[in-house]
Amino acid sequence: MKTIIEPFRIKSVEPIYFNTVEERKLILENAFYNPFLIRSKDVLIDLLTDSGTSAMSSSQWAGIMHGDESYAGSPSFFRFEETIQEITGMPLVIPTHQGRASEKILFSILGGKGKYFLSNTLFDTTRANIEFSGAEGIDLICEEGKHPAIPAPFKGNMDLVALKQIIKEKGAENIPLCIITVTNNSGGGQPVSMQNIRAVRTICSENNIPVFIDACRFAENSYFIKLREEGYNNKPVFEIARELFSYADGCTMSAKKDAFANIGGFLAMRNEELALKCRNLLVITEGFPTYGGLAGRDLEAIAIGLREVMEENYLQYRIRSIEYLANKLIAAGVPIMQPAGGHAVYLDAKKFLAHIPVAQYPGQALVGALYLHGGIRSVEIGSLMFGKYDDNKQLIPAQLELVRLAIPRRVYTQSHIDYVAEVVIEVFNARDKIKGLSIVEEAAVLRHFTAKLQQL
To answer: Smallest Cα–Cα separation from 259: which of 427, 446, 55?
Structure first.
């Protein structure tokens, strides 16, 4: 097989500012070992997130010039609406300024004390908005997804036996929604199979529970289905995506992921009564229903990006480039989530830093080490992000202790990725020198964004 090259040419560049280990040590200390508190200019390779960090295409930039900024009835909205309707098959489209705004609106209406939202795995803002409403989010990841080192084609799947059991235990009348996250971000960027989505739909329909898709990375998930699931290898990604959405009553999306946009999101659904309630809340919190907190130019960029992301040359390159980094790390013995995810490589921090107890946040310690050694900014997806406290203020750890290296779309070249691999391997070989952390200051909700830590 020939080298899979980037299916684009670089038209505009921005500089990377290099700094030294000594400078980064001071920067890390001043940021209290939290990558969110580091200034972007002090980062060499920024893998904190793939959200809003993509490089937009020349077509998207051209579309921005067509953006119509009318308060109501902008043609940019109708192009945005039509694109989403074509992809999802859902007639009711509500724009928001980003994904968590969609979640806030949806869970404010459907949530509340005594309610339970079921999912393969909820990501941080989704869970936070559920809990803020007074409801509880319950993760039902399949057994394969709990074991990072054991490869399986669809480790993002929901556990169907557990789904039936929890519906029986909590009562279907107390479950307003079942949410399928594609790909499963908290679970290592792993895809969900069409068979699993179809089965979840059947179980939920039997219990009158609506199903929503968290569609941030729907195109990447659809491409995994094409590659790995029988009967789909000759189907276009657009058709696979249409089928995926056909099993859902609605979806939320942060367009900052698979739409290549720097801002934006939406709610889409089939239920007119729910859509009316969402639009009423949208007007109070986000804006008029034809802009929803976005500029017309952003609506244009999203509409174009949603079509571009389903181009199969791009998706082949995207998935293969993540595998490229994963394979380099596996060859060096670095413990990672296998197989590679769609948008990121996830380091297994519990095995990487086996000498650091979970209560000393090994994932966050590894994040700091990667920045100190090579200027790479990553993010912990473990007990700092998802851990809770029991009645005695003791940590209830997360199911997995991961560090996510999220690769922005169309931003870094192969040499950047080679550098990342070199840094990770060097840190792994000197891992015994890395120390644990303790929390100095934390917020009650989404603490990982602003928490301050100290080295032990």
So the answer is: 55
Rounded Cα distance between 300 and 400, Å, is 38
Beta strands in 283-401 (DSSP E): 344-348, 376-377, 379-381, 388-389, 395-396
Q: Exposure string (b/e) for 328-341, b if CB count within 10 Å is 16 or more? A: bbbeeebbbbbbbb
Looking at the structure, tell me whether residues 219 and 341 fall in a common domain: no
Q: Which of 389, 301, 341, 27 is nearest to 184 (CA)?
A: 341
**Of 234, 237, 294, 231, nearest in space to 94 by CA:** 294
Residue 385's identity, in one-letter code, is M
Q: How far apart are CA 440 and CA 41, in angstroms?
A: 25
The closest alpha carbon to 332, from 434, 188, 430, 189, belongs to 430
Of 256, 277, 308, which residue sits at a domain end?
Answer: 308
> Is residue 83 in some structural domain?
yes
Boundary of a domain, candidates 308, 323, 351: 308
Full DSSP string of 47-65: -S-SSS-PPPPHHHHHHHH
Token pair belonging to 358? 């979970």
User: CA-to-CA distance for 134 and 130, rounded, in angstroms?
Assistant: 7
How many whole angstroms from its chain centre is CA 64? 25
Identify the CA nearest to 325 among candidates 304, 344, 308, 311. 344
Residues in a beta bridge with 380: 403
Domain that holds residue 413: 21-50+312-455
Burial of 223 (0-12, 13-18, 19+ CB in 10 A): buried
Any residues with CB less than 8 A from the CB of 367 and at least 6 apart, and which? 33, 35, 377, 378, 379, 380, 403
Is residue 335 in a domain? yes
- CATH number, domain of 439, equals 3.90.1150.10
Q: What share of the chain is helix, strand, coil (3-state, %, to 5)?
A: 45, 15, 40
- Reported as a single tens digit per residue, the pLDDT across 327-370 is 999 999 999 999 999 999 999 999 999 999 999 999 999 999 99
448 near 128, Cβ under 8 Å? no
pLDDT higher than 90, residue 4: no
> What is the per-residue pLDDT across 286-324, written as a single tens digit (0 to 9) for each?
999 999 999 999 999 999 999 999 999 999 999 999 999
Q: Is the residue at 12 inside a domain?
A: no
Question: Coil, strand or helix: which one is 264?
Answer: coil
Q: How many domains does the chain have?
A: 2
Q: How far apart are the C-alpha atoms of 429 and 441, rounded to whole Å?
A: 31
Of residues 106, 114, 117, the one with CA closest to residue 166: 117
Tell whether 280 is covered by a domain. yes
